[in-house]
Write a structure and sequence with these properties.
- With about 270 residues, this protein is an all-alpha fold.
- The chain contains 12 helices and no strands.
- Helix content is about 85%, strand content about 0%.
Length: about 270
C-alpha cells in the first residue's frame, strides 16, 4: 500500500504545482493585458493620454527621474518613513495589546478611549503633528503611527481574548502563571493574528506616509503625486502611483514569506 500511496501523493503534488503555475501565468497575462490595452487605448485616442497617461509615458517619466538621480531620493524617502512607521506601529501596538491582556482592569479603563481614537479620522491630526513636531519626516512618521497603532492594539488584543477558553482553563488548572499562559499558549495560538496585523499595517503605514507627504514634504512619492497634480504632469502622478503599488506589493510579499518561513520552522519543531 505504501508505494501506491506515495505515487498518489506524487501525482497530487504535481497537479498542485501545475495548478499554481497556471494561476501565476494567468495573473501575469492579466497584468500584461491590462497595460497593453491601456497603451493601445491611449495611442488610438480611446482615452485622453494627457489625463490618464499611458505605460510608455510613465516609463519615460521614470527613466527621466532615474537619469537625474531623483528617483532613488523620492523612493528611498518614502520607503524609510514607511519602514520606521510600520515597525514602530506594529511593535508598540503588540506590546500595548499584551499589557492590556495582562491587566483586564486597565483594558476596561482605556477601552472607550481606544474606540474613540479608532473612529477618529487620523488625517485631521496631520496639521496638529506638524505644529507639535515640525515640518519634517518626524511628523510624517507620527501620522503613520496614529493610523496603524490603534488598529494594531485592537486587532491583536481581540485575538488574545479569542484564545480557546478550554485550553486556558486547562493550563490554569495546571498552575500556570499569567506570563506562562501568555508565552506558552496565547502568543503561539495567535500567530495568524499577529501576521494579519503585519499585513494590515503594510497598507496603513503607506496610507499614513502618503497622507503625511501630501501635507508636508520635500521628497517622497506623496510629494511627487502632489507636485505632479499641481503642474498637471499626470505622467508623473501615475508613475508615482505605480511605484507606490509596486513597493507596497513587495512589502506585502515579504510578510507572506515571513509567515511561510515561521510556519515551516514550527512544523519542523513538531
Amino acid at each position: 500500500m505504501a508505494p501506491s500511496l506515495s505515487l498518489e501523493r506524487a501525482a497530487y503534488l504535481r497537479r498542485l504545482g501545475r495548478e499554481k503555475r497556471l494561476i501565476l501565468l494567468a495573473q501575469i497575462l492579466l497584468l500584461v493585458g491590462f497595460f497593453l490595452l491601456w497603451e493601445v487605448a491611449a495611442r488610438l485616442g480611446w482615452i485622453d493620454a494627457f489625463l490618464l497617461s499611458s505605460p510608455s509615458r510613465m516609463a519615460a517619466t521614470l527613466a527621466r527621474l532615474w537619469r537625474d538621480g531623483s528617483l532613488w531620493l523620492h523612493l528611498g524617502t518614502s520607503c524609510l518613513e514607511t519602514a520606521v512607521g510600520f515597525l514602530l506601529g506594529t511593535a508598540a501596538g503588540a506590546v500595548i495589546a499584551v499589557l492590556l491582556w495582562l491587566s483586564p482592569s486597565l483594558y476596561r479603563v482605556v477601552d472607550p478611549y481606544l474606540v474613540v481614537l479608532s473612529a477618529l479620522p487620523k488625517t485631521a491630526l496631520g496639521p496638529v503633528f506638524i505644529v507639535w513636531i515640525g515640518a519634517g519626516p518626524e511628523s510624517i512618521i507620527a501620522m503613520t503611527l496614529a493610523i496603524s497603532l490603534i488598529v494594531t492594539i485592537l486587532e491583536v488584543h481581540n485575538g488574545f481574548l479569542a484564545t480557546d477558553p478550554g485550553k486556558l482553563r486547562l493550563v490554569k488548572t495546571m498552575g500556570a502563571t499569567r506570563a506562562q499562559i501568555l508565552f506558552k499558549l496565547v502568543l503561539p495560538a495567535n500567530f495568524a493574528t499577529l501576521i494579519n496585523a503585519l499585513k494590515v499595517n503594510v497598507g496603513l503605514s503607506w496610507v499614513g506616509v502618503i497622507m503625511g507627504e501630501f501635507l508636508v514634504s520635500r521628497a517622497g512619492l506623496g510629494y511627487l503625486i502632489v507636485y505632479g497634480s499641481q503642474v498637471f504632469q499626470m505622467d508623473l502622478v501615475m508613475a508615482s502611483v505605480l511605484l507606490l503599488a509596486l513597493v507596497a506589493a513587495v512589502m506585502y510579499q515579504g510578510i507572506r514569506l515571513l509567515e511561510r518561513s515561521v510556519q515551516n520552522h514550527m512544523e519542523g519543531l513538531q
